[in-house]
Amino acid sequence: MSRNKSRRVVEDSPLTNHDINDFNFKGLLKLVDDINLKIIEELIKNPSTSSMSLATKLGIPLSSLQRRRTKLEKSLLIKAYHIDLKASGGKMGDIVVNVDKGKSRVVATNILKNYKSNVMNVSTRINSEHNVAAQILYNNTAELHNILESIKSIPYVTSLQWSEMVEMIGDNSPLVITAFFNSSKQRTHQSG
Predict the structure, then answer these.
(1) For the structural domain made of 85-164, what CATH number should be given?
(2) 3-80, CATH topology level
(3) Do residues 157 and 95 lie in contact, with contact meaning Cβ atoms separated by under 8 Å?
(4) Domain locations in the chain?
(5) Which of 28, 36, 170, 188 fits a 20 to 30 Å CA distance from 181?
(6) What is the reported pTM?
(7) Tens digits of per-residue pLDDT, 113-129?
(8) In angstroms, rounded to a whole number, what is the distance separating the alpha carbons of residues 25 and 31?
C-alpha cells in the first residue's frame, strides 16, 4: 500500500488520534517484556554499556541481546550525552514563564530561536500559573540576569521565575521507567 493510500485509510477511518496513539502505546508495551525492561534499565544507567557486558550481566546470548537492543533503540530509546557542569564551569537553571493565554507556543518558539547560545530546551506546560519552561546553561549571574531581563521583554510574557541547579542528589530514572512500564502493562491487562 502506498504511503498516500495508507494515510487515506487512517484519515477515512473512524479511528481518532487517541485511538492511534493508544494502539502505538500498546504496541510499545508488547515490546517491553521483562528481559527488554532489564535491558532498558541497564542502558539508562549506563548508555555506553557494551552489548557483550550487558549479555553477560543479564545471562542471555549476545545475539539475542543485540537483536533486542537494536529493536529498542529504533523504537523507544534515545541515546544522549549530558554535560558535566562542574568540569565545564557552567551553571544550569530552569526558567518558568507565565504568558498570556494562548500564546505559550509563540513565546516558547521565540525563546528557543533567540537564545540559542543558552537555552537547551523549551516546553509548553499545563498548570495553574507558569506555562512555558526553559532549561538554560549560563556562565555567571550577570549573563543570567541579562537573559531573564530579555525574556521578560518578550511580548505576551507576564512574569517569570528561575532556579539554579546546585547539586544533583540522585537519579531514579531506571526505577521510575520500570515502574511506569509495569503499571502500564497492568492497566492494559485489566482494561483489555
Answers:
(1) 3.30.70.920
(2) Arc Repressor Mutant, subunit A (1.10.10)
(3) no
(4) 3-80, 85-164
(5) 170
(6) 0.63
(7) 999 999 999 999 887 77
(8) 10
Residues written for the chain = 192
Q: Using one digit for the tens of pLDDT, what is the confidence trace for 51-69?
A: 999 999 999 999 999 999 9
Tell me which H or E stretch contains 167: none
CA dist 156 and 90 (Å) reads 29
110: Cα separation from own chain's centroid: 21
CA–CA separation, 179 vs 173, rounded Å? Answer: 10
Q: Which triple of cell numbers denotes residue 78?
A: 534515545
pLDDT averages per 10-residue partition of the chain, 192 residues: 37 39 55 87 88 96 95 85 76 93 92 94 85 93 95 95 88 83 72 62
Grid coordinates standing for 167? 547539586
- Type of residue at 151: I
For the purposes of burial, counting CB atoms within 10 Å of the CB of 131, is it exposed (0-12), middle (13-18) or buried (19 or more)?
A: buried
Nearest to 92 by CA among 45, 142, 144, 133: 144
The answer to whether domain 3-80 and domain 85-164 are alike in fold is: no
Nearest to 107 by CA among 98, 94, 117, 116: 98
Question: Locate cell 537547551: which residue?
Answer: 120
